[in-house]
Design goal:
Blueprint lengths: L3 H19 L4 H4 L6 H27 L1 H29 L9 H21 L6 H23 L1 H4 L1 H6 L6 H27 L12 H24 L3 H15 L14 H4 L3 H13 L7 H25 L3 H4 L1
Helix pairs in contact: 1-3, 3-14, 4-9, 5-6, 5-9, 6-9, 6-10, 6-11, 6-13, 9-10, 10-13, 10-14, 13-14
Length: about 325
């Protein structure tokens, strides 16, 4: 019988097995085996994890059809609630505000203006179209930060609903991440305005922009589900996470070029998922370059690993939430 514990154990074993097999991939795909171990080992592990998670998902679809069917039926039954929650989050954010939804455009623009004024003298000569470079990183990081920070509190803030009626509890962090995605759309409009003002050339690769946004959405949803589950049992997490996101912002090349870092630190920065997503976004918009197969596999690996880990922990702990709310 394919239980949750057996599935988790199987995924770990498959990750180890796939990683061992993928070591012998051609160097054109995996890179030079003489690279720094801090860079090369994670490449192998991420590829193995992606393959293992894909295998695990296929096994669930094949052997747990009743569970999948029940989850699909449950989602269809409560999808109207999901729409209402997304609408509530969006409307309440701008309630009693004079400019209303216009702040979704003004916030990234004003933030970009302030940071550009502070750092333009340091990095403008090193980075062409610095405002575009800055805002591209800012909107991806801002989406992740907003969706996970707000998503972490969704189960706690929905205590009244959870204690009164049955609702699929994953609806709450999912609605928060979708709401942040709507805000991202408005931020992207601001990004296009800056793109036009600074005279940056439009490239056909910008048609692929939904890909890094999709990767970031899946990754953020997994993190939001994980945090929302942990926050029920450990409320101090809501305060500690703010410190973590501040540290993460400075560890992610949002307003500075990655080439100013020492060579020995670059492989470590490469393990930052947001660095990969932001780099993907900038390649498409600023440099007109389609990221290679390895970059896509890394982004998929981060996204799937986050979603599967977050979903697994959320589902296994959700029956205990009501005892701690």
């Amino acid at each position: 019988m394919l239980t949750k514990k057996r599935l988790a154990l199987l995924t770990i074993l498959l990750t180890i097995a796939y990683s061992g097999a993928l070591y012998y991939l051609p160097e054109s795909i995996i890179g030079n085996r003489a690279d720094n171990i801090l860079l090369y080992a994670p490449k192998i592990v991420f590829l193995g994890m992606t393959a293992a998670i894909t295998t695990a998902v296929i096994l669930v679809l094949v052997f747990k059809r009743e569970f999948v069917r029940w989850q699909k039926t449950s989602f269809n039954r409560y999808k109207h609630l999901l729409r209402l929650l997304v609408r509530r989050d969006f409307v309440s954010k701008y309630r009693k505000s004079i400019f209303g939804v216009v702040w979704s455009l003004l916030n990234p623009l004003l933030t970009m203006l302030v940071i550009t004024m502070v750092f333009s003298y340091l990095f403008r000569r090193n980075i062409e179209y610095f405002p575009v470079y800055l805002l591209g990183g800012q909107i991806i990081y801002g989406f992740f930060n907003e969706s996970t920070t707000q998503g972490m509190r969704t189960v706690i803030s929905s205590e009244g609903i959870i204690k009164k009626i049955y609702v699929p509890k994953y609806i709450f962090p999912l609605s928060r991440v979708i709401s942040s995605l709507v805000n991202l759309v408005f931020s992207f409009i601001a990004f296009l305005l800056v793109f036009i003002v600074v005279g940056a050339p439009f490239r056909w690769t910008m048609l692929l922009i939904p890909l890094p946004i999709l990767y970031t959405f899946i990754f953020s949803l997994g993190v939001a589900m994980l945090l929302s589950s942990m926050a029920v049992f450990f409320r101090d997490l809501t305060y500690l996470y703010g410190v973590f996101t501040l540290l993460l912002m400075y560890l992610t090349p949002i307003f500075y070029p990655v080439d100013i870092l020492p060579d020995n630190l670059r492989p470590i920065i490469g393990l930052n998922p947001l660095f990969q997503f932001i780099g993907y976004f900038r390649d498409l918009t600023l440099y007109g370059k389609v990221p290679d197969l390895w970059t896509n596999l890394v982004c998929i690996g981060f996204a799937l690993a986050s979603l599967c880990c977050g979903t697994f922990i959320f589902m296994t702990q959700q029956d205990k939430y009501i005892l701690h709310l």
